[in-house]
What does this fold into?
Amino acid sequence: MIKGIIFLTTCASILAACSSKTLPNDSAKEVAISRVFSKSFSDPGPDKGILIVKRDEGIYGGACATKVYINALHAANIRPGEKVTLYVPAGKVIVSAEPSGICAGALVEESIDDVPTDEKAAIRADLEALREHVGGMGPVRFSANVSPEPFARGFTHSFTVDFDDEAARDAYLAHPEHQRAGARLVAALAGGTDGLLVIDLDLAATV
It folds into this structure.
C-alpha cells in the first residue's frame, strides 16, 4: 500500500534567483526511463511512497539537467519542463539536487572513472569490433583528457574514429552492433546521454 505522495519542484539556477516559469504538474513531461538510474526508485511496492520531483521551465540552466538524489543516491536527471516519479521507502527521505554540466557557473564532472576496468575494456572492444562489420571504418582511439587547461566542460574521456567517407560513417551509425555498443557506453556514463558529446569533423574541408 502506498504510504503517501510528495511533490517537489527544483530550479537549476544558482547565481540568479529561480528565474523560471511555474509549470503545472499535469503539463510537465515525465522523464525518459533512461534517465532514472536506480531500479529501486522506479518500481512501486507495498512499503513505498510516491515522490514526484518537477523542474519548472526557465532560461537559466536551461541547457543542463538537474541531478536528483534520494538518500545520497543518484536517482534521476531532469530537464526543464520535466518531472520524475520515484518510489521511495516509507519513513524519512533526504532529497537533494545539483546541476549537471555548466549551469550558471557550476561545473560538475561527467566521468566513467568509477566504471570497473573490465567494463571499460569491454566497451572499447565492442566499439573496435565494429570494424569487422563496417567497411571504411578506421581504428578507434581512446584517451583520457590530458589538457592542463580548464575548458573540458567536465568531460574526462574521449574516443575518435576515422571514416573513409560519409557513407562509412552512416553505415556505422545505423549498424545494430553500434546501437548495442552505444547503449552499453551510455549506461556507463554519469548522467547517461547527458554525459555524452558527439562531434563529426570533415578534416578535408576549409573552414
